[in-house]
Amino acid sequence: MKGPLLVLGVIAAASSSGPLVAVALGTDAQGVDLLVRLAGPSAAHPLGTDELGRDVLLRVLEGGRVSLAIGGIAALAAAALGSLIGLTAGYLGGWADRILMRATDGVIALPLLPLLIVLAALDLTKLGVPQDWVQSEQITLMRIIALVALVGWTTAARLVRSATLVTRNQDFVRAARSLGAPVPHILLWHILPNAAGPLVVATALSVGDIILLESVLSFLGLGIQPPMASWGSMLSNAQELIATAPLLAIYPGAMIFSTVMSCNLLGDAFHKRLDPRLAGP
Amino acid sequence: MIRFTAIRLVEIIAVLALMSFVIYALIGLMPGDPIDLMRAADPRTSAADIARLKAIYGLDRPLIDRYFAWAGAALAGELGYSRLFAAPVLVVLLPRLVNSLLLMGASFALAFSAALALGIAAARRPGSRLDAVINLLSFAGISMPSFWLALLLMLLFAVELGWLPASGIASAGGGGAGDRIRHLVLPVATLTLASLGPYTRFARAAMRDALAQAHIRTARAKGAGEMRVVIHHALRSALIPLVTLLALSFGGLVSGALVTETMFSYPGMGKLIFDAVMGNDYNLALASLLLATAVTLAANLAADLAYFGLDPRVSLR
Fold first, then answer.
1. Helices B2-27 & B63-75, crossing angle to 10 degrees?
2. CB-CB: which of B127, B248, B297 is closest to A281?
3. Neighbouring C-beta atoms of residue A220, cutoff 10 Å
4. Which pTM value belongs to this model?
5. C-beta atoms of A242 and B151 within 8 A
6. Which runs of E-coded beta strand occur in chain A?
7. What is the DSSP string of A14-27?
8. Does ipTM top 0.85?
């Protein structure tokens, strides 16, 4: 458990110190310098430069900030949406439960990436969002987080639903109901905390998958938009230069791989620790 | 079983109908519309011309009307014309569906057999060094971005070594079956390796549960050989949960194929969906998305039916 934690810690610390490194190097992640395009490693550019002369190290670090932030926030958003759906299904029961659980099964079975591509390509101005908003960084980030939440809620929904089914008729919930507590209060204060353990583990385990999904979308040109750096979009630029500058394709990919691998190993260790049946070899 | 299949088929049709409406509505929200493109192509188009064009294409009618008009035509086999390829949608779709099924089928078969072998090897000696190595490798497989894997394979085998072509489906001018296969190697390898991680974990978990069951001890006590115990007694019961998990992973296989095909410019459904969505080819995007969904759901149903065959406790009425 220490290894992955250490790797993740180093990546997080390095990514968040990106702005400091930028000051030390005297440029920033967007700084274009066409005179030193595709340069090799040097004192001014420790990992060299890309096809526009931007510093690769700074872009890798900025990509790390973006990926980790999206991984964390989107995991929480997906867990929140899943909890809402799980609570509704479990508490209402009957038809609502059946429909919501069929929808959950459906989302798990469908080919999600093709559908996400359609959603990612939507023109938000046709929905009445102002033009300058659509092009802002915040909207780009929020759009990715919304897309991830839209496909990532199923595990949380199932866990919360089963916890709700177990607790909804227990004495403390009946007591709260007979005292006249409103339903949202019962759901949030009396039922949801009973699902907290597995929900936290599932959310932690999902961070790696979410970072992968974000990098695929950015790689396809549908996630993080330039000039903001992301590991996925750096790889998509590197693909065109693979014969001349192969190293550009190595760094971002290695970062995605080691981050996601650490997240997954950490989540697995966490899972085993909390579930004694899985302990041992 | 006929009743079950019938219910599932009705469900699949309902899901496809719902999806077709959602996708139809969403596609209208994608950037650019055909009339804008025509106006851009010919700046002399007047406002009256545009109104007339909209009437011709039915774009002045409400969404629901347009959807039902499209659905009626689609059910009659009339899927419209692809703007991007300047050909009827079906003509564009079918050869690419065959290419994709070839890629996905080969990768699934390879990944499934390799995962079974690895899973059995790991599950037979839980906690051994071999188990730990296989576990770590399957985590690596799960954590590997498939497009990076594709880039690395391309870099090694196409750029550095020059052994295999990096993209396409055949050399210019065509080169027979050997050439086709050479073009398939890297895409199939990418999709196989990308699927291998999760499959191995499924197989290992299913085999471990199966080997811990009482009937395995009985079989050993009665003197059955190791080979017979593992293959005949354990694998048969492990296949039941395994098939359920694999059924749910077909959607992932289609998503993986999309990335792989896009990376290697392999003319399959995945790349077609991507190109159609990016190129505002409404008819083609709709039809190809629905076809990909239908294939996934059909594979799902096939896995469920296999489950009925595998599990003797479920009656085959």
1. 130
2. B127
3. 22
4. 0.85
5. yes
6. none
7. HHHTHHHHHHHHTS
8. no
